């Protein structure tokens, strides 16, 4: 129900901090890693047992696509999946269109996986995904020898014809973990080393998981301000068991709630702590958050730990632009923490938020301009 201002029934009361939060909880699995686990499990020889898989619509679309490409993908329980792979070059030509729904990650990574296969596949998605151009992926794949036919503006639906590819060295014109991952996946089927150069480091989940499945991956400083990720083609990937870490973006919401609600003490278990994803937690610590990492470990090539959070008096900070890539999805919840902090918080380098699935900057501004309702 809504708590209204008794002095003026037409005027909603301002939202206030709720009651304390106590206990331990595991948040849903990381979406980026879930996609990659299904794809690489389907390209490996033998079985891969996946625990903690995120079972959202986007990931389920990738699971269905891998089945259509010849992998055996079976759900065995909540978050528990068994994948029997077809081998690096063993994916089959799908009998129908691969519909990725709204999943740009699934569509772009699967284009890379299909690229070195001697098959043809047609990709489509929902109305939103069909509006998003695929040229960033098609450009490097085209350099490797992939043929593709797409709608105007290089949009879905598109048909991709895989085959014998050549290794390349490709410099990303704009930062994109999806494009980098597609090129590395395509590089699995080349007779040589494929390298992606980036001026700004992007998420490295693909590099970590490729190494976990047995690929020869090299990550290094390439000089001149560039970072290089490369893969040696024609590996024999082997099925490997893994547990998908808790999504740090999903963990951000109960984490901030615990910091803001007086008396709270919460532990979030098994959270992915990839340093390219933890900008929010670094920022919260600068704001004065009581945030402790317990039981640090590695699972499936990813750093993981348990986050212990206690209610804290936060203060405003200046968030540098170079931190934006490591927390680009968390700025909306950071805005909530900043609204409850003492002093001004300045967030820099947020242009990408304008071109997500929606204009997130506009949404945050609109929400802050509206009087909020306290609900129970």
Can you walk through the features of this model?
- There is one protein chain.
- With 376 residues, the protein is of the alpha/beta class.
- Helix content is 29%, strand content 26%.
- Strands 1-14-16-15 form a four-stranded mixed beta sheet.
- Helix 10 (331-340) links the parallel strand 17 (318-319) and strand 18.
- It starts with 21 loop residues before the first strand and ends in a 7-residue tail after the last helix.
- The model is unreliable at 1-15 and 371-376 (pLDDT under 50).
- The H-and-E topology, N to C, reads as EHEHEEEHEHHEEEHEHEEEHEHEEEHEH
Mass-distribution shape:
globular
Radius of gyration (Å): 22 Å
Q: State the helical fraction.
A: 25-40%
End-to-end separation: 5 Å
Q: Low-confidence spans: pLDDT under 50, at least 5 residues?
A: 1-15, 371-376
**Strand count:** 18
Class by helix and strand content? alpha/beta
Largest sheet: 4 strands, mixed
Average pLDDT for all residues: 91
Roughly what fraction of the amino acids lie in strands?
25-35%
Strand order, largest beta sheet: 1-14-16-15
**Total helical segments:** 11
**Oligomeric category:** single chain
